[in-house]
């Protein structure tokens, strides 16, 4: 079996940049998302530029059976996942009572359940080898209550807590788990979430490539949490010191300005 990195949500944004960086280093990558055309175009780009093996697998990870099927397809290709990057996810910007229930539950299936399933599927083999890595993409939203994006913020709080907990469990095992917590990032996220990109947001946004680069660097340094952006690193401190109702009011004002 050949070692490979599996990246979910890899057709655009941070996921595509993770793949681009790793391909440039000569790594074998498995990229998965729902959009076949985008995956195949990226695969051709990476093969042509770097001569590496890239395997695109189309999957909708919001569907319960997709995580297991993805693992089976990866094994059938003769690949062993030594690094897992759980990047797939989306958000919705609206009051919770206005959100279609099926979309809210799809968000939970993708942001939480699929991430948990994939981690559980690939982690035991990493432990047996005493080597491996998992990057779970959370958000600085994980530190706050998020009115008008309540399910998204709550899902990222799960990702952060889950990642920190298993990182502790795996100390000394040779397996590194990192929660990557970016702030505003230049990607398709705002469009999917139905959010307006304000001038302030554009000025504060970090490129997807820089987020991926910092995430990889922090993970390789063994960090359990990587927060990108100097200002964003205040988020955990503010979340600990400020009253929760004040945090909710601030987040509500930000989200109303972007809705």
Structural commentary:
Helices cover 51% and strands 17% of the residues. The protein has ten helices and nine strands. The strands form two sheets. It has a seven-stranded parallel sheet with strand order 3-2-1-4-5-6-9, with helices on both faces. It has a two-stranded parallel sheet with strand order 7-8. Helix 1 links the parallel strand 1 and strand 2. Helix 1 packs across helix 8 and helix 3 runs parallel beside helix 4. The model has no long low-confidence stretch (mean pLDDT 91).
Determine the structural class based on helices, strands and strand pairing: alpha/beta
CATH superfamily: NAD(P)-binding Rossmann-like Domain
Assign the CATH topology.
Rossmann fold
- Whole-Å distance between the termini? 47 Å
Q: Which percent band covers the strand fraction? A: 15-25%
Record field, number of beta strands: 9
Number of domains: 1
Runs with pLDDT <50, length 5+? Answer: none
Helix and strand element order: EHEHEHEHEHEEHHEHEHH
The coarse silhouette is: globular
Largest sheet: 7 strands, parallel
The helical percent reads 40-55%
**Order of neighbouring strands in the sheet with most strands:** 3-2-1-4-5-6-9
- Work out the helix count: 10
The CATH class turns out to be Alpha Beta
What does the average pLDDT come to? Answer: 91
Oligomer, anyone? single chain
Query: Which CATH-level-2 architecture?
Result: 3-Layer(aba) Sandwich
Radius of gyration, in angstroms, nearest whole number? 18 Å
Quick recap:
It is built from ten helices and nine strands. It has 259 residues and is an alpha/beta fold. It has one domain (2-258): NAD(P)-binding Rossmann-like Domain (Rossmann fold, 3-Layer(aba) Sandwich).
